[in-house]
Structures are given as C-alpha cells and as structure tokens.
Write the structure tokens for this entry.
Amino acid sequence: MNTTDLLHRYAAKELDFTQAILHQVSLKGRNLSRINLTRADLSSADLSDADLSGACLQQANLTDADLNGSNLVGANLVEINLIGAELIGADLRGADLSGADLRCANLHQADLSGANITDVDLNGADLSDANLANAKLGGTDLSVADLSGTNMDGVNLNQEERKQAGTSHHWTTWAGS
C-alpha cells in the first residue's frame, strides 16, 4: 500500500489498516486520528507532526520511524516496536505503551504524562527533559535510560527505583544521534 491509497481510503472513512505494509511511507503532518494500524509495518516511516491521537498501533513495527512532534494522545501502543524511533517533542499523554520496545528511542522533551509505561524496554532510550508526571511505570527499568531533566512528579517508585532512576547515561541512538 502506498501513501496515496492509504489517504484516499482514510478520507473515505475507512479506519482499519490492520497488518498494512507501509515501510518508509511519508505521512508527515497528516491527520490520521483514530486509525487502526494494528500489526502494521511502518518501519522507517515519516510520521513527524502527524495526528495519531486515539490511534491503535498495537504490535506495529515502527523501527527507526520519525515521530518527532507527533500527536499520540490516548493512542494504543501496546507491545509496539519503537526501536531507534525518533519521538522528540511527541505528545504521548495518556497513551498505553505497556510491553513496548523503546530500545534506543529518542523521547527527548516528549510528554508521557499519565501514560502507561509498564513492562517497557527502555534500554538506551533518551528521556531527557521528558514529562513522565503521573505515568505508570511498573516493571520498567529506568536505570537503562537517560532521565536527565525528566519530570517524575506523581510517579510511584520505591527507594531503590528512585536511586536507579537518578542514574543518567548518554546513549547513542541507532541513527547515531
């Protein structure tokens, strides 16, 4: 499926694109709110500044995707693959990222307030200056991510988890940044 096909079908009120192959597609700045891209391949896609609010991307592959500045408010991102993805300044308020793979993802200045980030792999992720206020983090190891300047207000961590969360690393993403 190409960009034109997807946009025409979406404009015709079709929302279900389960398992669509959209490798390297460019949907920059597009409104795709409430779209269903469950198990879709969006690896290396450009979704920067896109509106994906309320979208279902459960088990989708977004390896190395560009989601900088995107709106993912309330999105279903359960078990999503965001390895090496760029999410600088992305709005993920209230999103469900449980079981997600965010290894080496860049979430610098992302807003994850109120998000469900349980059992997430953050190994090498950049969460510097991100907002994690009131996020649910059960089962997620924060010691493997860069948390410098991160807002952790309202996050329930035990003493050992708080100590580990204070550890800051400077990682290199898969893209070399």
About this structure: The helical segments are 3-11, 159-165. Residues 61 and 173 are 17 Å apart (CA to CA). The two ends are 30 Å apart (CA to CA). The first helix runs from residue 3 to 11.
